[in-house]
Design goal:
Strand content: under 5%
Radius of gyration: 44 Å
Order of helices and strands: HEEHHHHHHHHHHHHHHHHHHHH
Strand order of the largest sheet: 1-2
Number of strands: 2
Distance between the termini: 103 Å
Helix content: over 70%
Structural class: mainly alpha
Length: about 425
């Protein structure tokens, strides 16, 4: 459509010009004493047009002639700029291919060309784009190569050169270069097993960069290396939230760090604080509950303090039998037997254990637990009957030994010395 309109306009101009030139009888008289020249108006207009065109071409030619030195200067600067970019590309390629010495040389060449361009550039020259970003990348490539070559002095010099660029929030390229330098420095510090130095660089990052998966992974590694398990647990939670691990790996890692954070407690108050700091998903894991219970009993011996931890796990175990493995069930039964014996007799717990024993008659660990609780409630006959059935079937040596010792005490109460000696003998055999 646009081309058609141009053609119509062109034809209109041609028709108007033909009508004007064909019917124009005007003349232009030029007096040049003693001569007189009569020219048609059409010829005069044509001569003026030719004069304008020739003047314009002459002006363009003179401008181009005077512009030649500036064009030559721009061409030389462009050649140097292209060589600078080519040197940086060579440095990156050599870094990734493992030729670290060549990478350092190429990066230093790019830096030298950038310094040369900066020094010879004048106010009339076109401004160079991405100068600071290119300088920062060259320093980072050189620092990375120096790290691979174990040249810490060169690595530190290049890192300081990047940090000296300044922290201008408006310059996104410089900001990204500084973030890259901080992440690289943290990774190098971890490689040197210097966890405090790595954490110092990571703490210097902004809120956004510090929550990236790369930064969180390094923070997790640094805090674990520095034995700061509570901070490591926070980093692991964020990584699990971002999907950095599989579900199984995340659960295993969180469990391991939760246990480590509980181990950092040196008294019952610290342990209670560490327990309160855990999330619901972590407090619901049987391994964490059992470990926290053992730590509390070891630190203070307060059995009443651990019952709020054990009760939900016990209810979940008897209501959802597939939620616990046989090994976990053994530990739960052993821990509950130890704790309930330290507390006053509780008929509700006795009834709950008895219901569970009748629901799952093949769970020998429940037989053991029921026998110990019956013995604690002074139900001697029932305790003896249950433990005699459970003791030979127990796979856990501690539980089996405790069952035989309890039977030995019951036999001594009945003054059945032969039975007591037999139970003590079997307990000793388990110990051996």
């Amino acid at each position: 459509m646009k081309a058609a309109l141009w053609f119509v306009a062109l034809f209109g101009v041609a028709v108007a010009s033909a009508l004007f030139a064909g019917g124009n009888q005007s003349t232009v008289t030029v007096f040049w004493s003693p001569h007189r020249v009569d020219l048609s108006l059409n010829l005069v207009l044509l001569l003026l047009l030719l004069l304008f065109v020739m003047s314009h071409l002459a002006w363009r030619a003179m401008s181009g002639l005077f512009e030649l030195p500036h064009q030559a200067r721009r061409w030389r600067l462009q050649q140097k700029e292209r060589a600078m970019h080519a040197a940086l590309l060579d440095a990156l390629s050599e870094l990734w291919s493992g030729r670290y010495v060549r990478a350092v040389k190429s990066a230093e060449k790019a830096l030298a060309l950038e310094a040369l361009l900066t020094s010879v550039r004048t106010a009339d020259d076109a401004p160079l784009k991405y100068t600071q970003q290119l300088r920062a990348l060259s320093h980072l490539v050189a620092a990375e190569s120096a790290h691979a070559l174990r040249d810490r002095d060169a690595r530190g010099a290049h890192l300081q050169a990047v940090m000296a660029l300044g922290n201008d929030p408006q310059d996104k390229a410089v900001q990204a270069a500084l973030e890259s330098a901080s992440l690289g420095a943290a990774r190098w510090a971890l490689s040197d097993h210097d966890a405090p130095e790595a954490l110092r660089y990571l703490d210097g990052l902004g809120q956004g960069p510090s929550r990236r998966i790369l930064a969180l992974r390094m923070r997790l590694k640094a805090t674990r290396l520095d034995q700061q398990h509570t901070l490591a647990l926070d980093a692991a939670r964020l990584l699990a939230k971002h999907g950095a691990f599989s579900a199984t790996a995340a659960q295993s890692l969180l469990r391991e760090l939760a246990l480590a954070s509980l181990n950092e407690a040196h008294d019952s108050a610290q342990l209670q604080g560490a327990w309160d700091g855990l999330e619901d998903a972590e407090r619901s894991q049987p391994e964490v509950v059992l470990h926290a219970t053992q730590r509390m009993l070891k630190l203070s011996g307060e059995a009443a303090a651990v019952m709020p931890w054990l009760t939900p796990m016990w209810n979940r175990m008897v209501q959802q039998p597939d939620s616990c493995t046989p090994a976990i069930r053994e530990r739960v039964a052993q821990t509950l037997a130890r704790v309930l014996v330290m507390l006053p007799a509780d008929l509700e717990w006795l009834a709950s254990i008895e219901r569970a024993r009748q629901t799952y008659p093949r769970w020998v660990e429940l037989q053991y637990l029921a026998g110990v609780v019956c013995w604690h409630h002074a139900l001697w006959g029932k305790a003896q009957q249950i433990l005699e059935q459970a003791a030979p079937q127990l796979n856990n040596a501690d539980m089996q030994r405790h069952a035989w010792r309890t039977l030995a005490h019951l036999a001594e109460q009945k003054e059945d010395q032969a039975r007591a000696q037999l139970c003590w003998k079997r307990a000793a055999q388990v110990a051996a």
